[in-house]
Amino acid sequence: VNKIAILTSGGDSPGMNAALRAVVRTGLYFGLEVYGIMRGYSGMMEDDIFQMDSRSVANIIQRGGTILKSARCKEFYTAEGRAKAYANLKKRDIDGLVVIGGDGSFTGAMKLQAEFGIPVIGLPGTIDKDLYGTDFTIGFDTAVNTAVEAIDKIRDTADAHDRLFIVEVMGRHAGYIALHSGIATGAETILIPEASTNMDDVIASLSEKEKRKKLVNIIVVAEGDAFGGANEVAKVIKERLPKFDTKVSILGHIQRGGSPTCSDRLIASRMGYHAIEALLAGKSNVMVGIINNEMSYTPLEIAIREKDIIDEDWLRIVKILAS
Ligand code: F6P
């Protein structure tokens, strides 16, 4: 490998810039030419590619978003789109690609690798923590901390007015943001797609609390929960427990932004460094992750397909601590 390109794709996540910085500087350290691709696969197709040096990534480790910008690109799903994109790498003799993103971004990388033989390495950049083969994804810790800060504030109002708040957090089809932020804020109930949501249980638990005059409650709902988001949950509660002063708060994209936490900067830096080491060692088609504080390399296909199992213990902890 002599010339590599890097892109960020899919939903942005805090720490993508830190990862980018690590990849660029490690690549340069090992004598590689490094190219940045703007707006993910869109920029690859539109030939929006530029050579990067050490200064290109100065002063970005602390910044949210991504200086390379990101996009979700439909045309790249077609073989013609990918051929057009690859031609732009080929004409520069780029012979390695690092993709920072989530499952959609990895699928694109796998296809490029299969069709044109270019080695690709994935870095898990998503707030959702929905990739297999890593304990943490870049951006998850920041997103969870943002959610915790927001829910703490919501609890002040819940407490002042004796209200029940239903807070919806992001995560797409995964419940990790809800699980972690819910436990950390002392939520009464956490509703996630990985566990079945039984509204009768939720109602029974709230009624029992009402009898004890415990009216301050926070329910954290993952946007991907099978029962539906916060609005659906609120509808049922308002109907069946009209005595509760029920409010909905959907946190939304606030969870995607902001300066990455120390933990996200650290994993981004380590993963970025190891992306280059992996390419130089001849690895391809793998996602660099960290499991039990050790670097790990999981085939992209498995990283996307397999699911981590949420430990039943965690849900038990929620129940016991919220009494
Ligand atoms: O994957 C990150 C994420 O923020 C998900 O949690 C959410 O479902 C989705 O992206 C939202 O996508 P968009 O920003 O395109 O609306």
From TrEMBL:
Mg(2+) binds at residue 103. ADP binds at residues 21-25, 155, 186-188, 212, 214-216. NCBIfam families: PFKA_ATP (TIGR02482), PRK03202.1 (NF002872). It comes from the Bacteria. GO terms for cellular component: 6-phosphofructokinase complex. Belongs to the phosphofructokinase type A (PFKA) family. ATP-dependent PFK group I subfamily. Prokaryotic clade 'B1' sub-subfamily. Its cofactor is Mg(2+). It is an enzyme of class 2 (transferase). Catalyzes the phosphorylation of D-fructose 6-phosphate to fructose 1,6-bisphosphate by ATP, the first committing step of glycolysis. This is ATP-dependent 6-phosphofructokinase. Homotetramer. SUPFAM superfamilies: Phosphofructokinase (SSF53784). One of its GO terms (molecular function) is fructose-6-phosphate binding. ATP binds at residues 11, 72-73, 102-105. It catalyses: beta-D-fructose 6-phosphate + ATP = beta-D-fructose 1,6-bisphosphate + ADP + H(+). It comes from Arachidicoccus soli. It holds the Pfam family PFK. Its EC number is 2.7.1.11. Allosterically activated by ADP and other diphosphonucleosides, and allosterically inhibited by phosphoenolpyruvate. PROSITE patterns: PHOSPHOFRUCTOKINASE. Substrate binds at residues 126-128, 163, 170-172, 223, 247, 253-256. The lineage of its organism: Bacteria, Pseudomonadati, Bacteroidota, Chitinophagia, Chitinophagales. Pathway: Carbohydrate degradation; glycolysis; D-glyceraldehyde 3-phosphate and glycerone phosphate from D-glucose: step 3/4. Residues 3-279 form the Phosphofructokinase domain.
